[in-house]
Amino acid sequence: xxxxxxxxxxxxxxxxxxxxxxxxxxxxxxxxxxxxxxxxxxxxxxxxxxxxxxxxxxxxxxxxxxxxxxxxxxxxxxxxxxxxxxxxxxxxxxxxxxxxxxxxxxxxxxxxxxxxxxxxxxxxxxxxxxxxxxxxxxxxxxxxxxxxxxxxxxxxxxxxxxxxxxxxxxxxxxxxxxxxxxxxxxxxxxxxxxxxxxxxxxxxxxxxxxxxxxxxxxxxxxxxxxxxxxxxxxxxxxxxxxxxxxxxxxxxxxxxxxxxxxxxxxxxxxxxxxxxxxxxxxxxxxxxxxxxxxxxxxxxxxxxxxxxxxxxxxxxxxxxxxxxxxxxxxxxxx
Length: 334
What we know:
Keywords: DNA-binding, Transcription, Transcription regulation. The protein has 12 helices and 12 strands.
């Protein structure tokens, strides 16, 4: 008789039975009583060796990110490292390359307890979170940052992407734009949808009817993205403003404008989300929404270690929202 069989006999999850046997406050008294009675009936005995093994710490945490060729995730990792070092922990970095399949394989690898906690920013292809729910059911401390899955029900650390999308769009409108295109990379990601909703509401607030043809979903292929952006300027309703949800789409816009001899900002104004110092060095300098990446790493790691150490659990916020900054440069002004 083991815990897995006991859970099956009770028609309860492994996690629920385990918590009930440990007298967890998360389980109702009635369920605890039912579990204890069935355990006694089936002569279930707690394995002290296995219990002690589970209590051992690996002194390692995992960070799952979609890419490293990005000026955002580098500072995030630095922020995480600054907390991990204080705690005497090692940090393992796993890359999904924006692949849901890769993310699933990594999460399966980490189910065996090789790390004490996990921090994750979702891949752009992730459309199902069952593999992440399994981590939660196995009681592995889990924190989402930036690209989140709020339905999993673990703490998340984000910026206010909706508000940023709104103010970026309104900035372009204030500077004379009436046909603003929105470039994004995924229909699955929370950040993409929040930024798009901010964009749409800013248009509505300024009595500008949105044109669905001006919303472009791009991908990981640079040539395909350039063709998509070039196609924007071939129609009758050419954009006079470009709001790129990620920096690489803004850079692609610069390249296409040069190819088509369009002047930035005279013919088209451009703004994007970016943490790159290179934005200020472009010609013209690129206006950006800049996230507090280092602070996001520190905050996410701080919450994860509270979960690992089981300290102040009732005071851990389900959602932590950090403030971003609008940096206006020549690419988006009159």
